[in-house]
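Example 9 (inverse folding). The structure is encoded as follows.
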């Protein structure tokens, strides 16, 4: 009789583990859809990091004998591929973005997905984290970093008919 309880216990644990895995897969699928459908919203303020857009007044050459104009290259965007997901209970897990998430991107900046932030010059690194879903409301935090400048925002979305609709954005930190 004890052997039967062990078998029933093992089957119960396997079913419980399988349900959690399926739940995580649904969250991953929704997370990728949210990023894919709203990539332009999530990357809404990237021009503010582009130093080539700053207008520099002309300099008098008689005042600056060794003056050479600074040439700036166009800003590039690197999305970090890991998205950290906050679970309803305790704990976190992550999923990876892929090139499909960039299908709807409309940007004049070269954008691609990378594994690490290597802090290279004139590259805006974007990371997504603290993603969670509850009652068809999705929240994701986005951190944009270039050099010592950064912004940290929280975006809110509502799911309607399998589409993630942007609700609002909250600025959490800027520096």
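The amino acid assigned to each position is listed next.
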């Amino acid at each position: 009789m004890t052997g039967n309880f062990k078998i029933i216990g093992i089957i119960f644990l396997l079913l419980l583990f399988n349900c959690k895995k399926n739940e995580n897969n649904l969250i991953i699928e929704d997370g990728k859809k949210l990023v894919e459908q709203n990539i332009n919203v999530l990357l809404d303020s990237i021009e503010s990091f582009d130093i080539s857009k700053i207008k520099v007044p002309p300099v008098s050459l008689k005042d600056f004998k060794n003056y050479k104009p600074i040439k700036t290259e166009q800003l590039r965007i690197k999305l970090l591929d890991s998205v950290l997901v906050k679970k309803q209970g305790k704990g976190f897990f992550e999923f990876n973005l892929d090139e499909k998430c960039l299908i709807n991107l409309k940007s004049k900046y070269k954008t691609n997905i990378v594994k690490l932030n290597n802090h290279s010059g004139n590259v805006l690194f974007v990371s997504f984290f603290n993603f969670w879903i509850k009652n068809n409301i999705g929240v994701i935090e986005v951190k944009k970093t270039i050099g010592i400048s950064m912004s940290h925002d929280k975006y809110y979305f509502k799911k309607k008919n399998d589409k993630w609709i942007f609700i609002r954005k909250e600025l959490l930190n800027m520096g």
